[in-house]
Amino acid sequence: MTKLYDHLKPYAGPILFAIFLHIIRTITELFLPTITADMVNNGITTGNVNYILQLGLLMLGVALLSSIASISANYLSSKAANGFTRDLRQEVFTQVEHFSLHEFDRFGTSSLINRTTNDIAQVRTLLDFGLRMSIIAPIMSIGSVIMAYRRDPGLALVFVVVIPVLALIIIGVVYKGLPLFEAVQKKLDEMNLILRERLSGIRVIRAFHRESVEKERFQHKNTDYTLTSIAVNRIMGAMMPMVTLTMNLAILLIVWFGGFRIMEGHMMVGDLMAFIQYAMQVMSALILLTRVFLIIPKAMTSWGRVGQILDTVPEITDPQTPLEPEAVHGHVRFDKVDFYYPGAEFPALSGISFEAKPGETTAIIGSTGSGKTTLASLLLRHYDPTSGSIQVDGVDIRDMKQETLRSQVGYTAQRTLLFSGSIRENLLWGKEDATDEELEDACRIAQAKEFIDRLQEGYDHQLSQGAKNLSGGQKQRLAMARALVGKTPILLFDDSFSALDYTTEARLRLALAQEMSDRTLLVISQRINTVMEADQILVMDTGRIVGQGTHEELLKTNPVYQEIVASQLNKEEIA
């Protein structure tokens, strides 16, 4: 939460000046009923036109001052609120960028999006409207009571009865509503998660005819969210009529008793008019205050949710004195690496030890869930190992800056992800200042140049969201080209050949062998044809390396590898 308050410091000046202007505005408005009362008592009732003109000009000047102060204060508070929330969104975005996958798993993508958009918007409303009203309403209500007391102390006793009643109403409603606001935000996160899954997984949902099931699932969460929101709105909605009813009864009492006091000669007509105006100002101030109390529970819940992100210390951070390899070759070494996912009973990886050397291809094969992708995540330092170490060129990756480590690895993920924009823009992710020749060379090796040249706009061809206007194989080849553009010493392909036909894959493997002979190539796959020509093959099963060697060696000695081969190749191909 401290970081949230730190973001307010640059705007302390405008906020304090806005508060000062709000005070000026409120004080000037408090004097208007008094001027009106004097005009009626000493001008209108006596027919003194000059006195009426003098007070009229005074009222005009006071109203003008009030308007200038109000406009200036609103401008400053709005500017401060918008600047604060702009900085806060940027800070939250930057903080989330530094999160490890542990933190992403803990918060959830839908919740992070909600906190960055909806919750920060609630905070902005509190800082802008809430700041204004929290200054104006108390001064206006207290000042109006004081000014009314000066006009008639006896009649001001009405406020002594009314104000505690109003305070009890507001406190009771807020006390009941605050826990429900927190529940509403959590249910909104859950509903957004289901909506996000439905939209991103629409093809799978339709393929399995699950529209009705997903509709019912969303409807259940939507109904739950709606009922909780209705409960909150019922509580908060009851406050305004109760406040209005109480204040209208107060005005009725003022007129009733004020009439008797005028007939008895204890009060003048102008004083009663001023008293009614002050009562209306008290009512307006308390109505504004109720609106603030409607905002505060939502905003404070959101404030806490945003603060949780900023106060979260990422599990994976750069060392204070980072080390860098003396020479960059791309030599990778896993030494007795164990890894548990948070809360897992069994390790995802256990006792992993191997070396991947420059100029060699190391292939990793195994059944689904054997730990292949987890191994890749550890090399990229998306997670840190529970025990053991991972070294690149003799330096433990925990002693390196994350940027340095990842700049040495050209990576394609198991799930191909391309961004909306042109093909060129996507390729430049691999190297921002890459020339056209470097882009074409990378695409030629990745077997993507041929289909790009057939496109009318070539490298300027626009990709839709998720590159839906490309086939799976085209997306994989572009992802590999993006990894190749940077000419990194380490290439890590995580199941990046799965959508390629065997002919294209064979050409790609041949191009990699010819062009990348000085780099360390790590290939994760479930296809025997992809790994059989590797210099060394690691066979994984239930998080362990159960075999290591060449295709021929493993085919003779390793039962797990033999089983995988037998499931994919016939006897003639094996021979």
Automatic annotation (TrEMBL):
<feature type="transmembrane region" description="Helical">
    <location>
        <begin position="52"/>
        <end position="76"/>
    </location>
</feature>
<dbReference type="GO" id="GO:0015421">
    <property type="term" value="F:ABC-type oligopeptide transporter activity"/>
</dbReference>
<protein>
    <submittedName>
        <fullName>ABC transporter ATP-binding protein</fullName>
    </submittedName>
</protein>
<dbReference type="GO" id="GO:0005524">
    <property type="term" value="F:ATP binding"/>
</dbReference>
<keyword id="KW-1003">Cell membrane</keyword>
<feature type="transmembrane region" description="Helical">
    <location>
        <begin position="275"/>
        <end position="296"/>
    </location>
</feature>
<feature type="domain" description="ABC transporter">
    <location>
        <begin position="332"/>
        <end position="567"/>
    </location>
</feature>
<feature type="domain" description="ABC transmembrane type-1">
    <location>
        <begin position="16"/>
        <end position="298"/>
    </location>
</feature>
<dbReference type="InterPro" id="IPR039421">
    <property type="entry name" value="Type_1_exporter"/>
</dbReference>
<keyword id="KW-0472">Membrane</keyword>
<feature type="transmembrane region" description="Helical">
    <location>
        <begin position="243"/>
        <end position="263"/>
    </location>
</feature>
<dbReference type="InterPro" id="IPR027417">
    <property type="entry name" value="P-loop_NTPase"/>
</dbReference>
<dbReference type="InterPro" id="IPR003439">
    <property type="entry name" value="ABC_transporter-like_ATP-bd"/>
</dbReference>
<keyword id="KW-0067">ATP-binding</keyword>
<dbReference type="InterPro" id="IPR011527">
    <property type="entry name" value="ABC1_TM_dom"/>
</dbReference>
<keyword id="KW-0812">Transmembrane</keyword>
<dbReference type="GO" id="GO:0016887">
    <property type="term" value="F:ATP hydrolysis activity"/>
</dbReference>
<keyword id="KW-0813">Transport</keyword>
<dbReference type="InterPro" id="IPR036640">
    <property type="entry name" value="ABC1_TM_sf"/>
</dbReference>
<dbReference type="InterPro" id="IPR017871">
    <property type="entry name" value="ABC_transporter-like_CS"/>
</dbReference>
<feature type="transmembrane region" description="Helical">
    <location>
        <begin position="155"/>
        <end position="178"/>
    </location>
</feature>
<keyword id="KW-1133">Transmembrane helix</keyword>
<dbReference type="InterPro" id="IPR003593">
    <property type="entry name" value="AAA+_ATPase"/>
</dbReference>
<keyword id="KW-0547">Nucleotide-binding</keyword>
<dbReference type="Pfam" id="PF00664">
    <property type="entry name" value="ABC_membrane"/>
</dbReference>
<feature type="transmembrane region" description="Helical">
    <location>
        <begin position="12"/>
        <end position="32"/>
    </location>
</feature>
<dbReference type="Pfam" id="PF00005">
    <property type="entry name" value="ABC_tran"/>
</dbReference>
<dbReference type="GO" id="GO:0005886">
    <property type="term" value="C:plasma membrane"/>
</dbReference>
<feature type="transmembrane region" description="Helical">
    <location>
        <begin position="129"/>
        <end position="149"/>
    </location>
</feature>
